[in-house]
Design brief:
Layout: H1 2-15, E1 27-36, E2 39-43, H2 50-57, E3 61-77, E4 84-92, H3 96-100, E5 104-107, E6 118-122, H4 123-127, E7 139-142, E8 146-154, E9 168-171, E10 189-194, H5 204-219, H6 228-233, E11 237-244, H7 248-251, H8 264-291, H9 297-305, H10 310-347, H11 358-383, H12 388-392, H13 396-400, H14 403-436, E12 446-450, H15 459-467, E13 472-478, E14 489-494, E15 504-511, H16 515-519, E16 523-526, E17 540-544, H17 545-551, E18 562-566, E19 571-579, E20 594-598, E21 605-610, H18 615-629, E22 636-639, H19 640-646, H20 649-683, H21 685-693, H22 698-732, H23 743-769, H24 773-777
Parallel strand pairs: 4-9, 6-8, 15-20, 17-19
Antiparallel strand pairs: 1-2, 1-10, 1-11, 3-4, 3-7, 3-10, 5-8, 6-9, 7-8, 12-21, 12-22, 13-21, 14-15, 14-18, 16-19, 17-20, 18-19
Helix pairs in contact: 1-8, 1-10, 8-11, 8-14, 8-20, 10-11, 14-20, 14-22, 14-23, 20-23, 22-23
């Protein structure tokens, strides 16, 4: 029950995401599914002018608001010397507060984000700079250059909302890109509130009509004369859709998201584990109650002889099981309360037992009573059927029966245990596959220094100083990394054929000359950047094999191909090299097309390849260089392999939770099996004594007592393995690169279940077999 309670708190937290906002059921986000230039994308963002167009064109849209994530910034008060780094910052429209029903602690929400260079800040973020009641009207400096006035302070936003970990919001009205009618750039998370009684499906036709009304005319600036039908006939498409705010956390799964999301499959899996734990416990109660019914057979016989009705006996036994369940609930709450700090660390959440919530107590009490009645129902009806005359004559064994039901329950218990063992082994094997897969780049011993854009014109000097350290092998300036980092894509047109049919959509990353060597990328053909030798490399690009295949060329023939990659200015970029495909997204996605261009001036990270030695000392030396060049800026560093691992936090947490509750389920199953083995041995104590007197050895007796149970466990294995394979194969479908479930997982799952059962049963069997037969036969 304690395990079920902890898992229930986790599930409730996930299911309650974003439901705390006013009119949450009327709020939707606009998504974009598109294919253009050979790349199919599922975006959670739309273009900047979409919000205004929906309010003007669709009567059912009451209001709209946009957000634009810009990542981390350095921030300080006007008179302070040292900066504070805030890792998650967004631009927001002034309609943000009315959209979500958010009130300010200080300031006027009607005007808080209406003027350029204004910001709203959370309580925690504000307290880093000044008392919150004095924050409004104060000036904060962003990245040592932009001055923003605080116009509002709001309470820290809920952890189970899309705004978790968002410390401040900058006024969208001061963001130049947001004012442009660029229908081709999808960079804005856009939310709408519909009028009461309207759903997202009601506006789908009007929403999709915007493709022909706005997007195609925009595209005609670059592809003169193109029609919507021609666009579709070439295999391209843009589909707009809506998703309810309350569904985003569990049902979206788009990349990137406004904030970290989960998956409804995890809820199903954890819910199933919670149910499994309770079913296992209930099965134990049924099994042990019926197995030990022999001890209460005469009690039932006497009660029936004295006039007790069957309904009265059923009520007595159900009352007993209900009281046991209520007692168990008290202990479960105590165990859950003690365990929740460790559980939070395991799950990555901030859960607590809501003692002050009456609904929580009502649900618990009802659940405990239902569980008690469910667990006690079979034993109650079973024992109330005893024939008084038979049990009082000492024919208890014949009167009780129920062996088939007990056997079925043992099979159910161990089927569940085998299923969980197989699931745990598969999850960890997939994670091991991810860790060991050749990703096409080297993530080990690569140190990332973030926020180097704060160095402004001294970025190259910082890199040069780091390269002089003895433990540094190489270094590169970039904003883009194969592990979680900034992402950007663009449309490239072939210079010789600028039709939309021949265009290609690629990720575009700004890097410097040393990027390939530092990150460990492999050249398939051509060469890397070298601005010292080739001044034209400032306009050159390096593409990956996926881009080459989309273009229908070979790595050799694509060299020299020219693209127009800036549609407005018509700048020509020449392919000078091809890199081997590498996994710059997670293994859930296929490798997409990629173009690297030389642009160290855009860099926000310095990646440093270390060659071993004393890493701590090297890190200290690098930090000292940073302090000398940027004494007011915080030093932000992490290792690339750690960043890679964060991409699979959900799977790692799921694996650990799976393992812990699998062990718990096996223990519960073994307790039930041990109880049955004990009862079976007690029931056959005189048989054992007779066998020993007639010359049977300990081994023979242990075999006799154990073989029936092991048959049941074997049958459970046969049932559970196909079900486990089906469930885990479905789970693995989420990964584009995944394992095939190996044969040894089936074998090991079966061996572990049989081995644990054998140890459990053998212990009691050996204990019974070594008893002196004189003691067991003395009564005869």
């Amino acid at each position: 029950m304690a395990g079920g309670l902890l898992l229930g708190l986790y599930i409730y937290d996930d299911l309650s995401h974003d439901k705390m906002f006013t009119d949450a059921e009327r709020i939707y986000r606009i998504n974009t599914d598109m294919k253009f230039g050979g790349a199919a994308e599922e975006n959670a963002e739309v273009s900047a002018p979409m919000a205004e167009a929906m309010v003007n064109d669709i009567p059912q849209v009451e209001m709209a608001t946009r957000f634009r994530n810009i990542g981390g910034v350095f921030i300080r008060s006007q008179n302070a010397r040292d900066n504070v780094r805030e890792p998650q910052v967004s631009y927001a429209d002034s309609t943000f507060f009315d959209m979500f029903g958010i009130e300010l602690l200080y300031g006027d929400k009607r005007t808080a984000l209406t003027e350029p260079n204004t910001m709203v800040i959370t309580r925690t973020a504000a307290e880093k700079h000044f008392p919150i009641d004095q924050a409004v009207g104060k000036t904060l400096v962003i990245n040592d250059q932009d001055m923003y006035t605080v116009t509002g302070v709001l309470e820290d936003l809920p952890k189970n909302s899309i705004f978790k970990d968002k410390p401040l919001f900058l006024a969208m009205s001061g963001y130049e890109d947001a004012q442009l009618a660029e229908w081709g750039n999808h960079n804005y998370f856009t939310f709408i509130k519909l009028v009461p009684g309207t759903t997202g499906t009601n506006i789908q036709n009007e929403l999709q009509a915007m493709v022909g009304r706005y997007l195609i005319p925009y595209a005609q600036r670059f592809f003169p004369g193109i029609t919507e039908q021609q666009f579709l006939d070439s295999g391209n498409y843009v589909n707009y859709s809506t998703i309810p705010l309350t569904d985003i956390h569990l049902h979206s799964g788009r990349n990137p998201e406004f904030s970290a999301v989960s998956d409804i499959k995890n809820v199903y899996i954890l819910g199933a584990i919670a149910l499994i734990l309770l079913v296992l416990a209930s099965v134990n109660f049924m099994n042990l109650s019926t197995a030990h019914s022999l001890k209460r057979a005469k009690e039932v016989g006497i009660r029936k002889t004295l006039g007790s009705q069957r309904s009265g006996l059923i009520g007595q036994f159900l009352t007993e099981s209900g009281l046991i369940a209520m007692g168990a609930l008290i202990f479960a709450i105590i165990v859950a309360y003690i365990a929740i700090p460790f559980y939070n660390e395991l799950s990555g959440k901030e859960l607590s037992v809501p003692f002050s919530n009456p609904i929580f107590w009502l649900i618990l009490i009802i659940a405990a009573l239902v569980l008690g009645l469910f667990s006690g129902s079979y034993p109650a009806f079973f024992m109330s059927r005893f024939v008084a005359a038979k049990v009082l004559k000492g024919q208890g064994d014949n009167a009780i029966g129920g062996g088939r039901v007990r056997n079925a329950l043992v099979i159910l218990q161990f089927s569940i245990s085998v299923f969980l063992i197989m699931g745990t082994l598969t999850v960890f094997q997939q994670l091991r596959f991810i860790q060991g897969k050749d990703l096409g780049y080297g993530k080990n011993q690569v140190l990332i220094i973030g926020g180097v854009n704060a160095l402004e014109g001294r970025k190259q000097a910082f890199k040069d100083a780091v390269l002089r350290l003895s433990q540094v092998d190489n270094a590169t300036l970039s904003s883009f990394l194969p592990t979680p980092s900034a992402r950007s894509s663009g449309t490239y047109l072939l210079a010789e054929d600028r039709s939309q049919e021949k265009s290609i959509n690629m990720q575009q990353w700004a890097v410097d000359d040393d990027y390939l060597n530092t990150i460990g990328l492999s050249l398939v053909s051509g060469r890397t950047f070298d601005l010292d030798k080739f001044a034209t490399d400032s306009l050159a690009i390096i593409v990956n094999e996926k881009a080459v295949s989309i273009l229908g060329k070979t790595p050799e023939t694509v060299i020299g191909t020219q693209f127009v990659n800036n549609l407005e200015e018509g700048t020509l970029s020449t392919v000078i090299g091809v890199v081997k495909d590498f996994h710059f997204e997670t293994l859930r996605e296929e490798v997409g097309a990629l173009a690297l261009f030389n642009g160290a001036e855009f860099a926000s990270n310095l990646s440093i390849k270390l060659n071993g030695g004393d890493v701590s000392r090297t890190l200290t030396e690098i930090e000292n260089i940073w302090r000398n060049m940027a004494p007011t800026q915080p030093f932000d560093s992490y290792f690339m392999d750690d960043s890679f691992n964060t991409s699979y936090d959900a799977e790692q947490r799921l694996g650990r939770i799976f393992m812990i509750f699998t062990i718990l389920s096996i223990i519960i199953a073994c307790l039930g099996l041990l109880g049955l083995a004990t009862f079976n041995a007690q029931k056959r104590v005189k048989e054992i004594g007779v066998r020993k007197v007639l010359g049977a050895g300990v081994g023979q007796i242990v075999y006799r007592l154990s073989v029936d149970f092991l048959k049941l466990v074997g049958l459970a294995v046969v049932i559970a393995l196909p079900l486990g394979w089906y469930a885990m194969d479905r789970w693995l479908q989420d990964f584009s690169y995944r394992i095939d479930i190996p044969w040894w997982i089936f074998a090991l799952s079966a061996l572990l279940a049989v081995g644990v059962a054998l140890v459990t049963v053998s212990y009691q069997s050996i204990k019974a077999a070594i008893v002196n037969p004189v003691k067991s036969l003395r009564a005869e």
